[in-house]
């Protein structure tokens, strides 16, 4: 097999693995990381600066997300609602 073909196959395999890993890991929030929704199809994650000044600046406008909050997209906008989803995906308020 030519080197170019091997490279293309390897790149395609990496893209599939990376896409799967990102979609599964996107909601595994970790301390010290920031997750930014920048609009439809624009989600990013990066390490936050670990300084007290940075922490204080972020906490100044931060609000705790309540338990049982559902996030969803509608017409390109990100929304949240208080409630839960049953195993079939139907929304309900406990």
Give a brief outline of the structure.
The protein is 34% helix and 28% strand. The protein is of the alpha+beta class.
Mind explaining what this structure looks like?
34% of the residues lie in helices and 28% in strands. The protein has two helices and six strands. The strands form three sheets. A two-stranded antiparallel ribbon has the order 1-2. It is extended. Mean pLDDT is 77; it is low at 1-26.
SSE sequence, one letter per element: HEEHEEEE
Fraction of residues in H or I helices: 25-40%
Structural shape: extended
Could you name the ranges where pLDDT drops below 50 across 5 or more consecutive residues? 1-26
Can you list the strand order of the major beta sheet?
Answer: 1-2
So how many helices? Answer: 2
Rg over C-alpha atoms, rounded to the nearest angstrom: 19 Å
Largest sheet: 2 strands, antiparallel
What structural category do the secondary elements indicate?
alpha+beta
Beta-strand content? 25-35%
Mean pLDDT: 77
Please give the number of β-strands.
Answer: 6
Query: Terminal Cα separation, in Å?
Result: 58 Å
């Amino acid at each position: 097999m030519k080197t170019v073909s091997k490279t293309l196959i390897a790149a395609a395999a990496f893209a599939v693995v990376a896409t799967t890993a990102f979609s599964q890991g996107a909601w595994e929030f970790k301390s010290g990381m920031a997750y930014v929704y920048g609009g439809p199809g624009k989600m990013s994650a990066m390490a936050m600066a670990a300084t007290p000044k940075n922490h204080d600046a972020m906490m100044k406008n931060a609000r705790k997300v309540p338990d049982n909050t559902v996030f969803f997209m509608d017409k390109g906008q990100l929304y949240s609602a208080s409630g839960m989803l049953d195993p079939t995906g139907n929304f309900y308020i406990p």
